[in-house]
Amino acid sequence: MRNRILLISFIFFVPVFFVASLPTKEKNINSALKLSEESEACLDCHSSVTPGIVEDWQTSLHSKINLQQAISKPELEKRVSSNKIQEKFGDKVIGCYECHSLNADSHKDNFDHFGYRINVIVSPNDCSTCHPIEATQYSESKKANAIGNLEENPVYHTLVETITSTKEFKNGKIVQTKEFENARSESCYACHGTKIEVKGMRSVETDLGEIEIPNLSNWPNHGVGRINPDGSKGACTSCHPRHSFSIEIARKPYTCGQCHLEPDVPAYNVYKESKHGNIFESKKEKWNWTNVPWTVGKDFSAPTCTSCHNSLLVNSSGDIIAERSHDFGSRLWTRLFGLIYAHPQPKNGNTSIIRNKDGLILPTTFTGENASEFLISKEEQSARIVKMSKVCQSCHSTTYASNHFKKLDKTIEETNKMTLTATQLLLEAWNAGLANKNNPFDETIEIKWIKQWLLYSNSIRYASAMSGPDYAAFKNGWWDLSNNLAEMKDWIEVHKKIKK
Question: For 251-270, how does the pLDDT look when each residue is reduced to its tens digit (9 = 90+)?
Answer without folding.
Answer: 999 999 999 999 999 999 99
